[in-house]
Amino acid sequence: MTRSWVLVHYWQLLQLLDIVLYCFLFLLLSTVLLFTIHVLYEKYEDKVDAIGKKAIKEIKKQYAVLDEKVWSEQDSKRSSEQEEGLKNAVKFVSMQHDDDLWEELVEQCLNKPEMVWKWSWTLYSCQT
């Protein structure tokens, strides 16, 4: 029994030593990289800055393409959905013949226009 007990403790000691060595290695490599990157940047600062400016310019160009192709389409879909929602809201309020409801619709359009189409879809779907 004592032999297995000693082996277990050696195993635990080795695991602890392994963790300590990994932490030391991480700190050593981090320090070396930080100093190396700093020295290399100081030496090649002009070239690095030029490449960085080109990269930023390319990123901005790609963002403009993404904005034009993807997000503009989503905005147009959203605005058409909002227009359809407003039509449904007007249709719903017309069917109710209620002046207070008309006032509520106008107030919602003025204060929270983004909510009108959501509200109208809810009301219209409850009617149909």
TrEMBL record:
The chain crosses the membrane at residues 19-41. It is a multi-pass membrane protein. One of its GO terms (cellular component) is endoplasmic reticulum membrane. Pfam families: TPR_Vps41 (PF23556). It is found in: Endoplasmic reticulum membrane. The keyword Iron does not apply. Keywords: Endoplasmic reticulum, Membrane, Transmembrane, Transmembrane helix. Residues 24-81 form the Reticulon domain. InterPro entries: Reticulon (IPR003388), Reticulon-like (IPR045064). PROSITE patterns: RETICULON. GO terms for biological process: response to bacterium. This is Reticulon. It comes from Arabidopsis suecica. The lineage of its organism: Eukaryota, Viridiplantae, Streptophyta, Embryophyta, Tracheophyta.
